[in-house]
Design a protein that fits this description.
- It is a single chain.
- Helices cover about 30% and strands about 25% of the residues.
- The strands form two sheets. It has a seven-stranded antiparallel β-sheet with strand order 7-4-6-5-9-10-8. It has a three-stranded antiparallel β-sheet with strand order 2-1-3, covered by helices on one side.
- The longest helix has 20 residues.
- It is globular.
Amino acid sequence: MADNFIEMDVVTADGSEITVSESSNPELFWAMRGAGQNFGIVTKFRYKIFDYPNGQNIFHATYHFTEDKLEILFEHLNRLLDNGTLPKDVNAYVVLRSKPLISPRASRAPNDSITRVVSNIIQPVFVYHFYYFGTDEQASPYLQQILHLGPIFTSNATFPYKDVSHRSFQASVGDPTCAAGISTKSRFPVGLKEYNVSTNRMIYDLFEDMITTTPALATSFVQFEAFPMQAVKAVDPASTAYAHRNDDILVAFSTQYLHSAANVAAANKYGRQARQLLVEGAHPMRLNAYSNYANGDETLEEIYGYEPWRLEKLRRLKRKWDPEGKFRFFNPITGH
């Protein structure tokens, strides 16, 4: 998204409102695209927009898989992603989570009480969300490959692109997922080039152990995100502050719970274990942490890039635009 900004009006730390773009305050424009929370508040922006494909509609299919299909599912996804060449009309997004009404070892409470259902969840499932910017007929060759893997439940629908967040994840404005104060969420993200199937088996075992031994975290989930990356990689990596353009996959061990000291401790324990497993199974073996998901305990290099010049530039700009560190709420950069 950062690549499509044309111009922004930004309120800086001293209260000034300035315009940033390629021709006006270009260095700050560079920083705002990838590290903007450190430099100011955007009050207005100009943005590149594009026509909807397929008459504004998107085809969405979901497939539920039990853990015995883990290996063949992620081998399929590695073939589909093909070293970062996922077709531009396709999005493949998998979530590992508890699904009480589907999980073979879960039991349904007589009164449909969510609390009682969650307490009986033992086995999580993989929910594979497949999106195609076209018709179901055009998507058919991909769908046949997925069906061949043997899902236990399938569904599909075509709906307007603008409704994707709501229809897919109940994660739009006004949905429970986005409501304030209901739960605390902590993510532990790792950027990858491809899925390490053996590592994903260990992630599954860790997640199952977490929701079994710590029921308060039973609504947590693991995100396996993959998007077409051709346009992202076509941009000069030095042209914005965003550092991780070479990643093709984003995995995030995402814990969700009612806030308490015990739940925070458990979430951090499992999240950090998962993150370490993913890093140890990655090539190269290092942590690339997507800033928007970052937990906050990562190093600045892990969030903003390992090239020394990047942090040097960000720190120099921090000293210039926010010397007192007023913008320091989220993954803050210091000027020294």
